[in-house]
Design goal:
Blueprint (H helix, E strand, L loop, with lengths): L2 H17 L4 E2 L2 H6 L14 E4 L3 H14 L3 E4 L16 E4 L6 E4 L4 E5 L4 H9 L3 E2 L12 H6 L7 H4 L6 E8 L3 E6 L11 H5 L8 E8 L1 E2 L3 E9 L2 H13 L6 E6 H11 L8 E9 L1 H17 L4 E4 L3 H12 L1 H8 L2 E4 L2 E2 L5 H15 L5 E4 L4 E8 L4 H21 L14 H11 L3 H13 L13
Parallel strand pairs: 2-4, 3-4
Antiparallel strand pairs: 1-2, 5-6, 6-10, 7-11, 8-9, 8-10, 12-14, 12-15, 13-14, 13-18, 16-19, 17-19, 18-19
Helix pairs in contact: 1-3, 9-12, 13-14, 14-15
The structure holds flavin-adenine dinucleotide.
The site of flavin-adenine dinucleotide has 38 residues, from strand 3, helix 5, strand 10 and helix 12.
Length: 466
Amino acid sequence: MSADSVRIKEALKILRDVLGQDKVIDEEEELYVYGFDATPLYFSKPYAVVRVFSINDVVEVLKIAHDYRIPIIPRGHGTSLTGAVVPISGGIVVDLSPMTKIEIKPEDGVVEAEAGATVAEVDLECNKYGFFLPPDPASAEVATIGGAIAEDSGGMRGARYGTFRNWVLALDVVIPGGKLLKLGAPVYKKRMGYDLMQLFIGSEGTLGIIIKAVLKIIPLPENIARFLVFFDDMENAINTLKDMRFSKINPLTAEFMDLETIQNINEVFKLGLPEHGISLLIDIDGYSDSLTKISERVLKILKENGAVEIIHARNEEEAKTLYAARRAAYPAIARRYKIVFAEDITVPLSKILQTFKEVKNIEKKYGVNIPTFGHIGDGNLHPNICIEERDTEAITRAKEIFEEICEVAIRIGGVVSGEHGIGIQKLTTFKRMLEVHNNLELLEYMRKIKQIFDPHNIMNPGKILG
Ligand SMILES: Cc1cc2nc3c(=O)[nH]c(=O)nc-3n(C[C@H](O)[C@H](O)[C@H](O)COP(=O)(O)OP(=O)(O)OC[C@H]3O[C@@H](n4cnc5c(N)ncnc54)[C@H](O)[C@@H]3O)c2cc1C
């Protein structure tokens, strides 16, 4: 038995003694399912999984892992699209899904949630009190609060409300060695020196484990007018949004799907959506009486910009179906193709058209399907490079196309990730982006920050910084 396996065996024995037998899993078949996330091709089995139920469990794991120098991979529900939760160096996966408590404080306009509660569960709880949690990733039904904060997820209301970063007020995190840090404060405004809490948002599990968050919530709009609109091309869709903005209309949601995406949704989920060049999902929120007036203005702008088909939801049922259609975009593509590489580039709003055209030129050049959809309201595009076969040549080419599209975003002045993060999938393109727009030296500052919280590099090693 190697020195490494002796060390791991010893650490697992202590963990079982301290936490109890049931929380520590090391049966082959169970470990296998913790070796993946939603990203294709990455797989690596952990040594063990620890299912945590309390702060104390997390503290004990991080004490022992620190002493025994064992990699720790915090895990929510494993929906990462960048390999961020794949245990590439083995290690112990800390499964936070049992920690699901939610407490809403409507008078304070905040909700307190443990890391393992899903984004949709938290939002639903807020809805009961007439509030909602603004960031809404398409994966909300599955993605956990801990995962969404660790990824700084965005989503379908990003056009108005941005990403999780804008809504986190306080975080409880545990760092290697088992120290609990209480960061931020549950109030709307604060000055607390350097903002250490923000470092943990988007840190992809590389600094510590988030166990609880306090999030700002806001009142639900009285009503929402929802439109699914179809245009012949992207230029009309972009001009529509521009005209809306310049007419003082600020949509709650502005999402797009291209024809290939719609065709995939129809094929897989049989929704029978109209099939035209580009579709836009637009939500306008407000008081019911004023919405009628704004909807008229929106309809006028849509027609002026050549909308070829407009579905204006007549009731809640129809509105839900339209939203669900957009949420189905990635699942449909992922079911239809053997391998899908999901891009997450973000460009200045004025460059969306150029970026989209370049993506479609790349699609033609390589003869590979790249259905594209995304959060057009905040410039975040998801071109999906799809391949039908698992052969090495096709995979290599898809990876080259992936990098070429990132290169387009960088050249145009954008970034390689708007919300999915870096993980392991974007290590090269992330460095390239820093090199072109910032300075590679920034990586050294980041490494030094990581060292402060995680001196032995046990937290999700190999992610973000390589
Ligand atoms: C169909 C589909 C649609 C998606 N749509 C969107 C979208 O619209 N917007 C968007 O932003 N993303 C989207 N994603 C990506 C993904 O859902 C998000 O990144 C999500 O927030 C991850 O949550 P999770 O619980 O699955 O985290 P995991 O995948 O389990 O983990 C993600 C990362 O967070 C770390 N982590 C997890 N929990 C903790 C914790 N408690 N403390 C510290 N680190 C932790 C992990 O180590 C890992 O690095 C989508 C994914 C899919 C499959």
